[in-house]
Amino acid sequence: MTKFVRSLAAAAVVAMAPVAYAETTVRVAYDADPVSLDPHEQLSGGTLQLSHMVFDPLVRWTQDLQFEPRLAESWEQIDDTTMRFKLRSGVTFHSGNPLTANDVDWTFDRLKQSDDFKGIFAPFTDVEVVDDMTFDLKTAEPYPLVLHTATYIFPMDSAYYSGTTADGKDKTEIVKHGDSFASRNVSGTGPFIVSEREQGVRVVFDRYADYWDNGSGGNVDKIVLTPIKEDPTRVAALLSGDVDFIAPVPPTDLKRVADADGVDLITMPGTRIITFQMNQERVEAFKDVRVRKAIDYAVNNAGIVDRIMRGFGTVGGQASPAGYLGYSEDFAPRFDLEKAKALMAEAGYADGFSITMMAPNNRYVNDDKIAQAVASMLAQINIKVDLQTMPKAQYWPTFDERAADMMMIGWHADTEDSANFHQFLTACPDEATGNGQYNSGNYCNEEADKLMLQANAETDPDKRAELLQKLEGILYEDAAFIPLHWQNLAWGAKSGMNAADIVNALNFPYFGDLIVETGS
Amino acid sequence: MFAYLAKRVIQAVAVMFVISLIAFAIQGNLGDPLRELVGQSVSEEVRQQLRDELGLNDSFVTQYLRFAGNALQGDLGTSYFFKEPALDVILKKLPATLELVFGATLIIVGFSVPLGVYTAIKPDSIISRIIMGLSIVGISIPVFLTAILMIFVFSVEYGWFPSYGRGDTVHVWGYWQTNFATADGWMHIILPSFALASIMLPLFVRLIRAEMMEVLQSEYVKYAKAKGINPWRIYFVHALKNTLLPVITVGGVQIGTMVAYTILTETVFQWPGMGFMFLEAVNRVDTPLIVAYLIVVGFIFVVTNTIVDLIYGLVNPTVNIARMGA
What is the pLDDT of residue A16? Predict the structure, then answer.
């Protein structure tokens, strides 16, 4: 199908023909396809990419990380713990059912049942339906991230997903590792309907004829999504014209894609930070802030981005990327070898010590090469590193065991908010709350935790920014972890597709808005 | 004969038991499947609960007995990723792999015989030297590198062939979709078939050449030449027939190796066969699918080896079947 299906060029030819009917097909290759058609089964990039095509969120992120109304037309805070949303009228699901506040209520309840999503929705208590087109989203405490979280509410067709299947299974159920109605059938309000799906091989999307958003000018009739896991093959597919849009473009091929004719490279700083954590329980020296700072000073972040990432990363001195509330330019990346050596001497470790280090070798871009570079940089301040890298499948259980003195972890905040980094990566580990779940450094600072709690209850953005920047400042002064860089994002697209308009730092391209030049 | 057959069947069952035990033992060391099944911020408590539900916290013996019990009833478990019985997933992917192996076999047979014979007849010609030199290169370059090079030369630079996937397939029967019914399907299968053949082809050229040269030295060929028989008849009828016997024996054994190479070829070409599926399953820690694949492939090996042994005995009566079984 892929090659002989009417391609963009063919569509242009057809457009010129007397019959004024043109079908615009875009062939997309990602490195993975969604694991399920159920939007609540797994919280992953693949699922969210699918949700933005087949469903529609209440609100969504713009390219400059602002909120944009989608199914929710407007919203207002009516008291400390209640946000009232007005739904857009005239929106229908693929099944033909109209969208009402009851669907939102139903979807909210289902999200609360989902293992992957319930964490994000923990601060929320209820959706109260006011009338068909109005509902209140309620939290237990004043909560600043109501709109952030609303980007995760993709209303599902409650009538369609209710009742039982022919073999007596509940259509509502979320099955994590098995077969369920929702994992194979889908009805959303989104710009595309799934017309064909062979998992791991191909998903075909057709434009939903009654899609509500006619204002965007999106003109793509059909999308064929193929997962192509191998980087060289994915790039070759784009360069040879077998597909029109790929993501991600691997760092090794950036120049190739940028230089090729008829193809555009689109890049953007991402929001995933890559870091190293220093385990204070395993290494006595790591308890000394001077040693941690010395390590931070010894690691040449800019060099890593320049040499290993080939410039394809944004050098970081903190967890929050620019655009997040906690971000401040004051927390600049440290690099000064002389200072590092002086700090080591001051702490009484001029002769250094030996540590173990672990990193994955297939999880983050160039992860193993980065770890090797960091290990050799630490050798310059007499820290001898015994480095071990392994595939992510083996790495995560090892990470949970805190099996090495320094471990690599990258993190993208689900909430697109600074507090999320702290909650998982640097907060005092606490099994009851789940805080510090990925804090393999066992770093613990109660003042920082207090600031996070305050920030999570502060609804005034200015005050919140102040709190979060103070929090980042503490982590910076403490050298709580070694920040390296934020991975950049890269897409490759056929020229004239206007693909740059629909991509964003969250990596959910909005294909519904894509305006392909059908030219003539 | 019957006693021998019974012995071989018992041997085959024992081998299958060992394979299943090994496959099952490996899966515990592949990593934690839960990491691939849940998002990054899911709590350890929920993960533990899911592990319980999946039975991953049971002892090895309990898990194996449960697995073996189900396997005897034809149930090799359910793939985490495909959410279907693992055996169904594999059977759906099998035709794509078989067609690829078939395509590669055609290329190997079609090229190795003329090239092997030519280089044996004219060992000192320039062309023979080039062929032999290239065959060394072919053997030395890993399959995935050959595949990537082919994609960049023939898909990206020249645009002659598509770069990935199976293209237009036509449904034949059951799970079987064929590539050989449409022009697009043919275009898609050519590059991957050549990539898969790239290791085996030089091997067979060299093998045929060596065997052929030996045969050409033999007395009966010299006698035939002396009698003045047309040299082409000598080469292609008298000599080739005797050359091919050992080649076919080796070829049967190499089919198994070819299945292994499909993993690399299919991954690079995004060919939706079971080799590609297997590598993906390893990445996703889809343990039921991994175990099922190993068992299915093990089964194919055991069955073909048994059949090859039996046929060998029938074809060559000097092999004492009764003693082979002992």
Answer: 41
**Which 8-state DSSP code applies to residue A190?**
S
* Distance from C-alpha of A502 to C-alpha of A266, rounded to nearest angstrom: 11
Q: Among residues A56, A192, A73, which one has the least CA distance to residue A135? A: A73
Q: In angstroms, how far is the first alpha carbon of chain B from the final one?
A: 12
Cβ contact (<8 Å) for B41 and A414?
yes
pLDDT at A60: 94
Q: Verify whether the Cβ–Cβ distance B35 to A392 is below 8 Å.
A: yes
**Model pLDDT for residues A289-306, shown as the tens digit of each residue:** 999 999 999 999 999 999
pLDDT tens column, B164-208: 888 888 888 888 888 888 888 899 999 999 999 988 899 899 989
Phi, psi of A275 (to 5 degrees): -140, 165
- In this structure, are residues A183 and A500 in contact, taking their beta carbons and an 8 Å threshold? no
Question: Does A236 contact B40 at a Cβ distance shorter than 8 Å?
Answer: no
Q: Cβ separation of A434 and B159 shorter than 8 Å?
A: no
Q: A420 to chain B: nearest residue by CA?
A: B41
**Digit-coded pLDDT (tens) for B101-156:** 999 989 998 999 889 989 988 888 999 999 999 888 888 888 888 899 999 899 88
Strands A72-79 and A67-69: unpaired
Inter-chain CB pairs, A–B, below 8 Å: 149
* A396 interfacial to chain B (CB closer than 8 Å): yes
Q: Helices (DSSP H) in chain B: which residue ranges? A: 2-27, 34-37, 44-54, 60-72, 86-121, 126-140, 143-150, 183-216, 219-226, 231-233, 240-269, 274-284, 287-315, 321-325
* ipTM given for this complex: 0.79
Among the partner residues A119, A240, A392, nearest to B156 by beta-carbon distance: A240
Rounded Cα–Cα distance for residues A52 and A477 (Å): 40
Chain B interface includes A427 (CB < 8 A): no
pLDDT of residue A179: 82
Which residues have C-beta within 8 Å of that of residue B75, sequence separation ≥ 6? Answer: B85, B87
Q: Which of A245, A189, A242 is nearest to A213 (CA)?
A: A189
Predicted confidence (pLDDT) per residue in A328-337, tens digit: 999 999 999 9
Chain B touched by A116 (CB under 8 Å): yes
- Residues 5-64 on B with a CB inside 8 Å of A are 30-32, 35-46, 50, 53-54
Amino acid letter at B85?
A: P
